[in-house]
Q: What sequence folds into this?
């Protein structure tokens, strides 16, 4: 949808490792699954972070909302996600969803998503109101929208210019009508080296036991 996703690399920092440990301890939220949303503006680094977090979760599945959305339904995909993914997982069954191909503009063959201890749902709108009751936790990539969009445009280049011209007003409308950040349990900031994980506006997923974590050395050291 918006460029090629980076290949996840295994991180060395403590912030993601600590986060993964705590996410495993959460109670299931969608049948046997701890469903974790990773939301933020387009270009904010959601896919990269989700891949690195999944690696620390021993290869946890990552459902990219780019596979659920389409050109005709940038944000109108809630019903399809509930029917194809959420409802089967709630029943403890393997979900079958039809990933969208942004090049051919067609939905592909069904792809299985078996229940797992933790499944990450990554993409703009992962924290929307209709999905929040099924989430064990919601993470928000803390990057201002203008900066995120500039990064996304630079990443995708001129060939996606027309897409971005349509995407930005659509994203503005979506978050104006159905904001995610106020309901985030944790905020994730990308630093020069690694990430910083901070309590979110909705309070942390594990209460007072979840402290601020960063991959960068403390300034007091």
A:
């Amino acid at each position: 949808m918006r460029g090629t996703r980076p290949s996840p690399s295994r991180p060395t920092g403590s912030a993601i490792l600590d986060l993964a440990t705590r996410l495993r301890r959460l109670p299931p939220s969608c049948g046997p699954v701890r469903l974790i949303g990773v939301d933020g503006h387009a270009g904010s680094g959601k896919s990269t972070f989700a891949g690195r977090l999944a690696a620390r979760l021993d290869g946890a599945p990552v459902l990219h909302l780019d596979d659920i959305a389409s050109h005709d339904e940038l944000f109108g995909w809630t019903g399809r996600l509930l029917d194809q993914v959420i409802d089967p997982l709630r029943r403890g069954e393997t979900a079958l969803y039809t990933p969208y191909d942004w090049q051919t503009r067609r939905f592909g063959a069904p792809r299985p998503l078996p229940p797992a201890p933790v499944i990450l749902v990554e993409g703009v709108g992962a924290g929307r109101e209709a999905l929040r009751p099924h989430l064990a936790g919601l993470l928000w990539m803390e990057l201002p929208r203008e900066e995120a969009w500039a990064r996304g445009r630079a990443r995708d280049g001129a060939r996606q210019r027309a897409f971005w011209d349509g995407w930005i007003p659509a994203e503005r409308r979506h978050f104006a009508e159905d904001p995610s950040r106020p309901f985030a349990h944790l905020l994730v900031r990308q630093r020069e080296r690694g990430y910083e994980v901070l309590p979110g506006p909705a309070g942390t997923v594990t209460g007072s036991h979840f402290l601020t974590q960063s991959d960068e050395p403390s300034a007091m050291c």
